[in-house]
Fold each of these.
Amino acid sequence: MAQLWGGRFTKETEQAVYDFNASILFDRRLIHQDIAGSIAHCTMLCKQGILTEQERDSIIEGLKGIEKDTESGILAITSAYEDIHSFVEANLIDRIGDTGKKLHTGRSRNDQVALDMRLYVKEQVLATDTLLKELLETLLHLMEEHLDTYMPGFTHLQKAQPTSLSHHLGAYFEMFRRDRERLQDLCRRMDYSPLGAGAFAGTTYPLDREYTASLLGFSGATLNSMDSVSDRDYVIEYLGALSLIMMHLSRFSEEMILWNSNEYRFVEIDDAYSTGSSIMPQKKNPDIAELVRGKTGRVYGALMSMLTTMKGIPLAYNKDMQEDKEMTFDAIDTVNSCIPLFNGMLRTTSFRKDVMEKSAMKGFTNATDAADYLVLKGVPFRDAHGIIGRLVLYCLSKEKSIDELSLEELKTFDPHFEEDVFDAISLETCVEKRLTKGAPGRKAMEEEIRVSRAYLEQ
Ligand code: ARG
């Protein structure tokens, strides 16, 4: 057991207590952040005349050695240490002797861990953002490719109106674009260094907090030192953003699963992204999409856990806050692996234009357009709605679609029907005439793609 404290204790810690209290098994992933923070801290201590240049250089060399040796595996991060901060400090003292004992001057593990977590989260937020950008590139390519791949649009999972695959995928583009904005927004808000807040009340040493903040690439130092060590809002905001990303990925997965089913056959997920069954030889299952959908739950769980952990904590640091790590790390790993996997699956999926188009022709997706046709001929919309409703009922009994009826049959429902109705309710017309901003018609979609392309290139 290597602990940073013990002076005021008369007994050894109970092993079970030590294990329960320790965080090394999960905060070991913060080693780079911990070392970067320590280098910045001691650089600042020297600038302020609190350490000599020789002491600073010796500490920095020692810290870099620890980092190098843990990377190469010469030095193992083991559960003999309480946490990553103890591990680094104890090893520093082993390496460079008494000078190592000066590193923690004007610092507490409270501001140290707050810093490590911020640095780590900031790095991961940027990684998630990059992964989302790659997914958006894939979506945009598909949108460009499928401007005239017609398909049914659904409401209530019932065929509603025809649209294009480009338009459908464009909806996901918007979701993931908003997800990126959320990440960038929280990144701006969290971009302040808590280092120098000490245990919670700052310190009597003349620390230059803005200087350490700038050394670590932050846009500044946090203000209130009590808040600095107690704030985990950025973790919650990130988990919130990750939850929304998973919600979007999960909806998309659900559609991929449906579309890949024997009933829809809109898509075929590539063999490389599918799995088989141990008993049914014919099976090719969309497990990746199902797992992405399934893993959404654990990311929501991390968000709920963190909100609940923080809700009853009095100021300032309390050990409850150590619980900010495991589930957050798990959520980050989950999302940052789901996005590229989903992206790979999407990139390699074949979209069956013919099946989608055939499906769009069935299910009366042109009923709204047939009503709109009558409106153009002077029939009030509500009456037109009733007429087409009765027409649909008739079609159902004949097992035909509206466009398969003869003009004579149509005229028995309303005398306004003319020969031009067939063009007006054709699949192509139904899609291409929808030209309002954000609608599926080619011209409108081309504009949507132009705006989306400009966004990705900015
Ligand atoms: N392992 C702790 C954590 O993750 C580090 C901070 C410990 N601070 C303290 N006062 N015990 O929160």
Amino acid sequence: MTAQIISGTEIRKAILGEIKEEVDQMKEKHGKVPGLVTILVGSSPASISYVTLKVKTAISLGFHEIQDDQPEDISEKDLLALIDKYNNDPDIHGILVQLPLPKHIDDKKVLNAINPDKDVDAFHPVNVGRLMIGGDEVKFLPCTPAGIQEMIVRSGTETSGAEVVVVGRSNIVGKPIAMMMAQKGVGANATVTIVHTRTKDLASHCKRADILVVAAGVPDLVKPEWIKPGATVIDVGVNRVGMNEQTGKAILKGDVDFDAAKEIAGKITPVPGGVGPMTIAMLMKNTLRSAKLSLGID
Ligand code: GUN
């Protein structure tokens, strides 16, 4: 039987609708809206397109949005001063510095300069530590893992006691999603295994998974025979495998052989239209949360 497709595009729409409602209520009751600043250094086309989408989404939700573009040659000192300015701006609840930064800037220094309570990417070590502790300690979840967890929950996948196998150990996806799913709580309480490039037998681990999360960055890495029948498969891979000559757009492929996998999995995310669209929605959710925390209403 063909798997149920978990559409990130549809879930994002629902989440943005929920956020908009809360923003409207916040404005009415408290005379405030969430404030987000996006800082883009330089003019990489990929970064421009990501930031443009973030800005558009924030504006569509009624956020106070500042798009603070900076030249490629801004000094590290000036960038740190800019972050300090927004750290002290009461109308700004979220600070997003688009990565990657130019080589002359130490990105770790920049990310660590963001006030952890405005770190809506959840990249600051304080937020990574809060995630590790779990429970009430957590202010923001990193956006892509948070999107993955939302998709798992909203697709009705049982996580409690489930075998979750995470392929990939990056700081942005693999490690945090594994930690989140092993915690107590909704969309969690799972038994989690992380596998990676040095794992001896990837296939045998994947075959055990009730929920398989693949964030390896290798097109078609996961073969259909590695998937347990009925499993939920979350494909985080976004691999550019060519160019559509007619549209001029990149051809994207996930880390899972989707066409074959959908005949075995119970639920599966497509690429594109799966995890990708969720990330910005979760960034908006974090910014709303930050605004609520600052107003003492969360
Ligand atoms: N560059 C690519 N993805 C991201 C992201 O999620 N956050 C930031 N800040 N930069 C990025």
